[in-house]
Amino acid sequence: MPDLEIVPATDADAPELLVLTRACWVQEALANETLDIPALHESLDQVRSDIERWDTYVVRAGTRLVASVRGRLTEGEDGRPVWDIGRLMVAPDLQGSGLGRRLLDHIQSVAPAEAVGFELFTGERSTRNHRMYLAAGFVLRPEVPAPPSAVMLTKAR
Predict the structure, then answer these.
(1) What pLDDT is recorded for position 111?
(2) Is the entire prediction scored with pTM above 0.90?
(3) Phi, psi of 146 (to 5 degrees)
(4) For residue 70, which phi and psi values (nearest 5 degrees)?
(5) What is the pLDDT of residues 137-157, one digit of tens each?
(6) DSSP assignment of 39-102, as one string?
């Protein structure tokens, strides 16, 4: 899917982002046997707020929003600045097309210069996600705290 453009999200994208989030995180809930996933419980107002607080990017196929990712500068476990990557999602019917990897590469490329590395978390049983992140150079970090039923992955810059 090389012809699809990755662009900054706007407030107008929020309703479709909410729908895409639910579609993608239902799969995560099934894979990890838990509904205790914050993304499944967000409101439209929370999505709008997150667009303002995160650097969020979307991909459209025609008029349909089909993928998204976000990042923000935060403090890493050692106190140094890291680029926190979140909500990497691709519409279920387009998963496996390489779009997720393109988004992952993109969000890393827009990280501020002061970020010394990258961090993200995914479901502990989300093996497809693990494969993609490990292939991209991330390392599973079981010793680093993560949300319930999730694992943290990090990558040096």
Answers:
(1) 98
(2) yes
(3) -140, 165
(4) -145, 160
(5) 999 999 988 888 889 999 999
(6) GGG--HHHHHHHHHHSEEEEEEETTEEEEEEEEEEEE-TTSSEEEEEEEEEE-GGGTTSSHHHH
- 6-156 placed in CATH 3.40.630.30: yes
Amino acid at 54: W
Single-letter amino acid, residue 118: F
Number of H helices, E strands in the chain: 4, 7
User: b/e string for 64-96 if b means 16 or more Cβ within 10 A?
Assistant: ebbbbbbbbeeebeeeebbbbbbbbbbbeebee
Q: What is the mean pLDDT of the chain?
A: 92
Which residues in the chain come in under a pLDDT of 50?
A: none
